[in-house]
Amino acid sequence: MLTRDVDGLSNAASLDELYERVAPLSAMPGWHSSLPVMWPEPQKTLAPAHWSYREMKAGLDAAGRLIDTSIAERRNLVLINPAEARLATTRTLVVAYQMVLPGEVARSHRHTANALRIVIDAEPGTYTVVDGVGVPMEQGDVLLTPGMSWHGHANEGNAPAYWIDILDLPLVQLLEPMFYEDHPAAYEPVNRHDPESAFRLSRRDTFAALAAAFPDEIALAAPSLLTIGLFMSRLEPGQTTASRQTTAQNIYVVLEGRGSSTIDGTVIDWERGDVFVAPGWRAHEHRAGESAVLLRATDAPVLEKLGFLRQGAP
Ligand code: GTQ
Ligand code: FE2
Question: For an engineered disulfide with 108, which of 93, 144, 183, 237 has Cβ 3.0 to 4.6 Å away?
Answer without folding.
Answer: 183
